[in-house]
What we know:
Elements: E1 7-13, E2 22-30, E3 33-41, H1 48-54, E4 61-64, E5 76-80, H2 88-99, E6 102-108, H3 111-115, H4 119-138
Parallel strand pairs: 3-6
Antiparallel strand pairs: 1-2, 2-3, 4-5, 4-6
Amino acid sequence: MSASTVNVSSHFIPPLNSSSPALAFQVTSLVDSYMIWAGIMEGHAEDVHNAASHGRLTQEWACAMPSLKASSPSPATSLFRTSSADVALPMAQRLARRFKKQIFLSLDLPPAFMTMGEGMRLTLEVEKRAVEILKKLEAPQAP
């Protein structure tokens, strides 16, 4: 990806088991930053390109910058959050630290999953998949 290119990609992650939902990611690659929307996917894998437009951008939304010092936490702020939790903020900080880019992260995870005891497992799965997707986007492209 060249320095002036904006690239939008959509990614479908099938359910891990019968009790877990499918996930959808929309990643907008900008100059030295990523804007990531992650949410629950209802429907078929071929509909993943429409998932973000049917989701809620501001369900849980945060922005984090990579820290100038490795030992310092990444500066970050919640742009919008639910009253029950602030899941996007620490996840955005970890992604910014790992990829050394500004991260705008919007999580659209239903409150029902977050309160049923599935919340921690689901958020860990979202972060794991986000890392996998960003690693692929960061990999050098073959000519």
